[in-house]
């Protein structure tokens, strides 16, 4: 129910997922994979032909969303030389307790200094959100440099880390609010507050 409903959007998945959830994907362009992949990077590698054709687009996972300043975003997308925009967040208490569940970003004098896969190096590191903006899809040709490792989950964060190490221009926007539903605890927390806010909203409406 939280999918953005827009015909410009593309969903990459298997035929089974599209068939089982057909009502959610009526207005989407579909990239159909022959079989389920073992990692996000494997999925992207199999979708390179589609990604390389795109410009000025978001890449999103299905279990995260957030709110950010559109003016700041527009300004960065128009800034000369910016190839990628990442989104960062202040981790919640639950997220801080899940030490190996999130990638963190370190900064030095306001500039991204490192992408730390599934670990927090410093107390002031910010979490890396599950969506990214790319100026030009041709950049995905570099994803071929990432090797798939048996038994290890290789995620988009590894690609962002590779781009940073190759001096690709990456800027960060801090989210006003971030929702990640990738773990049971995070999902339960979201459900709890969703119910509370809905009750308060309808109670305020009835009182008016």
**Can you tell me the residue ranges where pLDDT is under 50 for at least 5 consecutive residues?**
none
- CA-CA gap between termini: 28 Å
- Radius of gyration based on Cα positions: 18 Å
Binned strand content: 25-35%
Give helix % range.
Answer: 25-40%
Largest sheet: 6 strands, mixed
Number of strands: 10
Give the integer mean of the pLDDT values. Answer: 85
Which structural class best describes the helix and strand composition?
Answer: alpha+beta
Q: How would you explain this protein's 3D organization?
A:
- The structure is a single chain.
- This protein is of the alpha+beta class and 208 residues long.
- It has seven helices and ten strands.
- It has helices at residues 15-20, 40-45, 48-51, 70-78, 93-97, 156-165, 184-207, and strands at 10-14, 29-33, 55-60, 64-67, 84-89, 104-108, 111-116, 126-136, 170-174, 177-180.
- Strands 3, 5, 6, 7, 8 and 9 form a six-stranded mixed sheet that branches.
- The two termini are 28 Å apart.
- The model has no long low-confidence stretch (mean pLDDT 85).
Could you write a compact summary of the structure shown?
This protein is α+β, with helices and mostly antiparallel strands. 31% of the residues lie in helices and 27% in strands.
